[in-house]
Amino acid sequence: MITSKHRAFFIIITIFCNSNSFTSTYGNTTFCHRIEKQALLTLKQSLKLNSPALSSWNTTNSNCCTWNGVVCSDPTGHVHRLHLSSQSLHGNINLSTLPHLQHLRYLDLSHNQFQGAIPPSMARLKNLEYLNLSNAGFHGEIPRTIGNLSSLRTLVLEGSGQKVHGLGWLSGLVRLKHLNMNFVDLGKETNWLGIINALPRLAELHLRGCNLLSPLSTLDHVNATSLSFLDLSRNELASFSIARWIFRQGSLRFLDMSRNYIEAHIPSASNATKLQHIDLSWNKFSSVIPDWIYLCQDLKFLYLGNNFLKGTISKMVANLTSLDTFSLRYNKISGEIPSEITSLCTIRILDLSVNNLEGNVSNLFGSMSHCFLKAVATWRMRENKLSGHLTDQFGEFKKLRFLDLTKNSISGVIPGSLGKSSCLRRLWLGFNKLSGELPISIGKLSNLESLTFGRNMLEGVVNETHFEKLTKLKYLFGSGNNLSLKVCPDWIPPFQLVEIGLGSWNLGTASEIPSWIHELHKNVSVLDLSDTGLSGEVPIWVWGVSKLNLSHNHFHGEIPDFKPWGNHLVFPYYRRMYLSSNRFSGSLPRVSYDTIELDLSNNFLSGSLSHFLCDAIDDTYLLKILHLGNNLISGEIPNCWMKWSSLEYINLGNNFMFGRIPSSIGLLANLLSLNLDGNKLSGQIPLSIQNCTKLVKFDVGGNDLVGKIPTWIGTSLSNLMILVLRSNRFSGDIPSSICHLSTLQILDISSNDLSGVIPSCVHNLTAMATSRSFEEYDGGGIQYSQVFDTFMESVSIDTKGLVLQYDTFLVLVTSINLSDNNISGEIPEGVTRLVELKFLNLSRNHLTGSIPRGVGDMRKMESLDLSRNSLVGQIPVSITVLSFLSYLDLSYNLLEGKIPESTQILGMDAFSFVGNHLCGPPVPRNCTTSRDEEEEDGDEDGDEGEGEIDWFYVFVSLGYVVGFVGACSVLVLNKSWRQFYFGWVERIWLKIYVYFTIKWVRLKKQIIRE
């Protein structure tokens, strides 16, 4: 009887006896087949090797199972797996011998530098279950023959430079579980969703960056019910039409739809509650966060940032107790931050930046749980509406590396306990309302690399102790505080700073740049020493800094030409130079092609612009901001703006330039702001300016320009927010096309020779009728630079009897000034629809009619000047509801009646109403008539002398009667006397009439001229 032991023995003997044609086993060593060994050697010979990765592949070592990257099957000795990833292999791979590797199940050629396309002969490996060709250097079309590898379970073809024409071949891979075609161009495949849906065993699908378009039709049935991982990020799925298919995948655990810019609501998905990873960031999703996300109790990663989501997060935080990463940054989430957020024990990354979240940090984060303090590594809350004080508990974090509370309204002191958070690498507290001193304990954060606390209200002294252990510090930004730096003259900093921001600090008794900064200059790429009281000439090394802010100091001397920044390979920064409000003189420097922001305003620079603009060496320049205002620059503006096509902001205002505006400015298609005010420019506005369709501000005030206001301003420059044409010699009517400027906030065309009437369509200036908030515009104004956060648009407005300059709050300013022209007609009633208008000046014109009754609807009005016109009627009673009105001038009109009473009106000066027929406070004239006064006096006299006769008045009256009768008798009886008397009376009357008539005419002409 043959037992199982005997059978095993016979099998071993059989294998051993056939070892001459297969393999031999000695101990535990497996030997490969000769034919497979030869196939591998042939494969090696076709390759070019940059490393000794395949040095073990040689004839000396006869056992290929021991070669690097080769794995053989223990029982049979056949080559089972080839691990050749990241071996620096390149060349055209020869796979002609692949049929000899029929037992190969695993092939990994990823991360090499092969050339040409993927060989179609790879389809001969019928038993392949795993094929990885990601980033292997292959390019061109992926062969359809790969669809013949019916045993494949994993296929990785990731890599740019590859493409396919149709995905139909995928239908043959019925056992496929893992498919990765990231960055393969699938832009021409319209039925990709249907093909993917036909793979019933598919569990992981990676189609990142494949140029996928939204499918033409969605599927009502789902075959790929086993799908657990889906990455469709970085495509062009503009609509969410595949949402029904995606969220029917009940087994889905991982979903990444980021960076598709999908415009839609996040759909309902009752079957998607098993998700553990959701990334829908960088799209355009709107509406509130859907409730089904709250039900994903196993959710660990949630990225919903960079969308337009609204609503609150209270429900979400209460249920998602397994969160590891939670990002809602750059949305419109509002409401208070729930206190439950500090009880999340697994949270590692928490990013709620740039929303409208509110709350008092003292209350919200004053009792954080111990597990929360142990878990959090990154906590970002920048640009919200947080208030309150930072508590000492902020120093109890165990793993916190990044704390960002920038741009909130947090007040109080910086807690000294922060010095205990030893893991901190980045501490950002800038742009708040923090006060008190900078705690010395900050100097204990030995791992700190970036420290920003600028734009607060800190005060006191900073010394060496504050930097004692900051040996890793590279970025220091403390500008905008009232701090004093007091260190030893020979102090050597323990750090090597790359960026230094000490603007508005007191840097010591010396007026020059401190010596310790000189010691760091080899590494410094950003330097902000603005408003520090420094003077003298700027050291040569400073001009080599990439981003430099020396504004508002007392530096003098000439500014050298800027050369391209030498360390652009180490720090890929562009040059930004802010040197305004100093005493620099000489001619303008030439700039390098990599300079993108240049502010030399408020200095004593002279000469012309020709060498700066026209003697340019490079073909194109990247300059975006050019501010040369308030200097001594003269000559004509040269007509050579062709090489400066990147310009977005130009300010040449308040110089001594003359001549015409050059037509080549019209070539600046990216121009947002053009300021040429306060010069001596002549001629007309060139037609080419209409090509600058992105213009937000156009200011040519205070020049000598002529002609009519171009009608194309209202049609071609449809984005204008600020239009200033004041103090020129423009004539003609105000073009009605200006009413098309729906974004216009400031219109100033005062002090010209304009005539005609105010356009009746003025109510179409909807930006002056639409409410806006300061928070909507990231700090207010039109802000261009994000380097030092100091450069923004500004404009001067003649209002309230003064010339006021607005910059920070410019976005909230609305103004119309048509004063000092020859405009006639009535004030259109549509003006009163501009309910957000704050400043209105129509003075010194020939306006007639009455003040619009609806003036009270303009509730935001702060300044109203209608003086020196010919307005008639009474002042509307509705003016009394203008609670913000602080300046009112209605003088020199033909207004009459009683002045309406209100707190604002009573606070006005009487000169605001002079030259009218008005009565009542604040003018001294009483509104009672003269007859009423006489009757009141008569009543009072009667009361005092009732029943008594004053004989003196009786005799005087009798004498008057006798004399009058005697004179009349003489005139009646004597004809010559009668003729002489009446002739004399007539002559006297004519003289009086002519005299007062001439006086009135002269007075009216003087009022009109004024």
From TrEMBL:
Q: Which residues form the signal peptide?
A: 1-21
Any single Gene Ontology cellular-component annotation: plasma membrane
**Residue limits of the Disease resistance R13L4/SHOC-2-like LRR domain?**
82-206
Q: Which Gene3D superfamilies match?
A: Ribonuclease Inhibitor (3.80.10.10)
Q: Which domain of life is it from?
A: Eukaryota
Where does it mainly reside?
Answer: membrane
Q: Which UniProt keywords apply?
A: Cell membrane, Glycoprotein, Leucine-rich repeat, Membrane, Repeat, Signal, Transmembrane, Transmembrane helix
Positions of region (Disordered):
924-945
* Location of the Leucine-rich repeat-containing N-terminal plant-type domain: 36-73
Q: Which subcellular locations apply to this protein?
A: Cell membrane
Give the Acidic residues compositional bias ranges.
932-945
Q: Name one Pfam family in it.
A: LRRNT_2
Task: Kindly give the membrane topology term recorded for this protein.
Answer: Single-pass type I membrane protein
Q: Which family does it belong to?
A: Belongs to the RLP family.
**Protein name, UniProt field:** Leucine-rich repeat-containing N-terminal plant-type domain-containing protein
